[in-house]
Predict the 3D structure of the following.
Amino acid sequence: MMNFNFNASELIFALPELFLLSAISFVLLFDLFAGEQYKKFTYHLSQLALIITGVLAFSLIGESATIFSGTFVLDNLGSTFKVFILGFSVIALVYSRQYLRVHELLRNEYYILALMSILGMMVMVSGHSLLTLYLGLEIMSLSLYALIATARDRAFAIEAALKYFVLGAIASGLLLYGMSMIYGITGGLDIAQISSFASLTTLGPQQILILNFGLVFLVIGVAFKLGAVPFHMWVPDVYQGSPTSVTMFLSTVPKIAAVALLVRLLIDGLSNFQHYWADLFMILAILSIAVGSLVALTQVNIKRMLAYSTISHVGFVLLGFATGVVEGYGSAVFYVLAYILMSLAAFGSIIVLNRNGFEADQISDFRGLSKHSPWFALIMLVVMLSMAGVPPFIGFYSKLFILQQVVSEGYVILAIIAVIFAVISAYYYLQIIKTMYFDDSDEEIVISAPIDLKTVLSVNGILILLIGLMPSFWMNLSVSLF
Amino acid sequence: MDSLLSILIWLPIFGGVAVLLIGNNRSQLAKWTSVGISILVFLLSINLFLDFDTTTSSMQFIEKTSWISQFNIFYHLGIDGISMPLIILTTFSTILVIIAGWEVIKDRIADYMAAFLMMEGIIIGVFSAMDSMLYYVFWEASLIPMLLIIGVWGGQNRVYAAIKFFLYTFLGSVFMLVSLIYMYNLGGSFAISDMHSLPLTLSQQSWIFWAFFLAFAVKVPMFPVHTWLPDAHVQAPTGGSVILAAIMLKMGGYGFFRFSLPITPDASFYFAFVVIVLSLIAIVYIGFVALVQKDMKKLIAYSSISHMGFVTLGVFTLFSIMKMDSNGELLSIAGASIESAYLGLEGAMIQMVSHGFISAAMFLVVGVLYDRLHSREISTYGGVVNSMPKFTGFAVLFAMANAGLPGTSGFVGEFMVILGALQANFWYAFLAAMTLIVGAAYTLWMVKRVFWGPIVNPDVKTLNDVNAREFGILAILAVAVLWMGVYPQPVIEVMHVSIVNLLEQALTTKIPVIL
């Protein structure tokens, strides 16, 4: 049924992926054969590869094509997502290097695995067939499992890697199961084909039933990857157990890929069944916001607390997709980007506190930070208030846009529930501020971070305020993707 | 100057950033910069008064640029006779607070000054925002510096007080956010003036009214959502208490004027009785609560709640005085003249401004004592007049003003509100007038125990009288209190046309007519 025609001129549209793949191979070989004194350049080469890939992806914005016999799509959404994935990854690697340095985890496979998972995300973002999407997902996930296990002498990290692997495999299995049902009904792997076949009018009731089963499995798979309640069990343990730099990576960029998976499968592929999955999302969203806000209250480990906070943020994202309108999708994408910006800064601030093998992962490690290092404390203050949704920071606007769409679709009660939980969650963000500003510390915290880390973290913090003051452009951008 | 309001908002905010950058180590420079900026802002704000057109109720000093175009959100500023006095009150109080913290704050002085400067800009933003989303952003942002002021420079139990303050007000205002979004979806605009003319059914208005009420009542604060205030006041440093009492509480009162009355007039009419009852409970019951306090700051905090009860009482009695007939003519309900409805609203405004002066003065008085003996307990003192005669003079004056002595500003607002209430219902006026007795009782009893009588505590003997800095602050406030008490006319004149307009809006039904 499918014609596998290959046309070399199509390759140009996959240039970022191809370049990154070649770059990964090169970096791998370089790291293998380079002398000990040159090993440090692996990091720089990786960053360079990311930046060039980002530029390539950026230059393709505006182009649109479906290539490789319909299995790979290039559109505005894809290119923009890729640019953000690569940009955020650059920041994440800057923070990571500091963590690896102070914990003497300097193994260069770390960067190569990270690049590999980024490649997987890019394939996911551009996947236009069930197979490509699954391929991308597995490239990403397998690299992430290995990334967590880089700290192989820490029991917690191994536990986290194993847990993530087992649960991730189950999620992949469920996703595949759902895909097989969709394939069985529509007879196609191509998203466009699925979209034209899967309609409520042409299918019989029996087929709709099977398709709905498939749909539920797809939603579960996506919810697993995003970490929405009740498929969130892995999130806190994996976040806590992983090395902080990996936690940061896990909690940020893959969310864009997961959103892309959601967009490709559900919005592009099963738009006729929007009412079915939107209702599921609404339940997942409210549960995530509630559980994320309530359980985070009692955490003393900051990584675990941020894990639950992520769950509640994911709830807001799903709320945006549950509205079923383009502006709602746009708000959800804006929310994800805002969340990643905040999350990067939060983990960046935690990494700054790490020193000489000391793992700063308790909330109490922030005690008295505002005295010793007012600037980093201020950044963390901004991040926490922004996550709590206090204006004028970006987190407020991302919530505002979601709530606006939710109310305009007539779900006022959902908006009220969401804001009540937002107030509850404000309590644990305030706990961090309290620890930094109101508590005194007995020991002197000396922060010695390299200049590149300091600069990137400062810019990251300032962006949270600046985009908050001028959110218009980013909101336009997010909505224009759909 | 076309962008005077923007300058008033952003000059202190960027000034605050500059002071932060100067840093705690160069404390003299930080202090002088702060005081310079605050005086400059005050002088600039005088222009608002001088160039103000008292003949129109429409907004003045308007600035408007697009901000978030997708949702029709504008950076839209403007003031009328209701917001202008509050802005000047803000710029005035900030100077006092910054000077008051001069020698007292030893720890992180630059951060302290910067927090107050930024708060000044943000609060001016609250009073001048004409777009509800801009208003909301400023409204919420004002919590951040106050949270830090209470939490960093506060007393023993500061963490509890700071977090309680933040969460209480945050919870109150998120419902306002939802109702603003709801109205945007009905009318397609976040402009406050568009919301004023948006038709709403009674049930819609009721929901919106209570959402607003929660936000503003927490801020005022009204009984029974007042419990954060005594904690916040007691724990906050003197400057924090002054700004909290003098300005932040006014944000709640201002909200009733700007949002509740014009946007939900029918619901306001419908629920006016509830608000009046809560106000009277605040005035009388909280007055008695103040009577038994042992801590001076707590006593003044409760007295603040009691006095702010007059603001809500004055606002909502108008619905018992006037109504509008179907032809749009104003009719009086109980045979009162239209002037008595103005009396209520204008009395509420005067009360807000006057309470700004008096509560600031009272907290500064306590601050002066606290700086010397580090105790807020009434029982620590006694016979202070022997060692601090000049200071006692001021303290007694402010206490009299707090008790509502004629000739001081405390009398004017309360008297106007009581007169208005008398036209509505004798018992409203009777209960409100109780405050003249209860208020006098708790204030004067405190004065007696602190300033008169024999010296029990030997430390009191060694107290130094106020220095020039403290004398200056208290003297300025004394002048303000007396001037408002003797000649409040300029303030009334400024607000009169706006109040007339507001009264009309509040009495015009917004329920759409179904034909």
Q: What stands out?
A: Chain B touches chain A through 34 residues (CB under 8 Å). The beta strands of chain B are 60-68, 73-79, 322-324, 330-332.
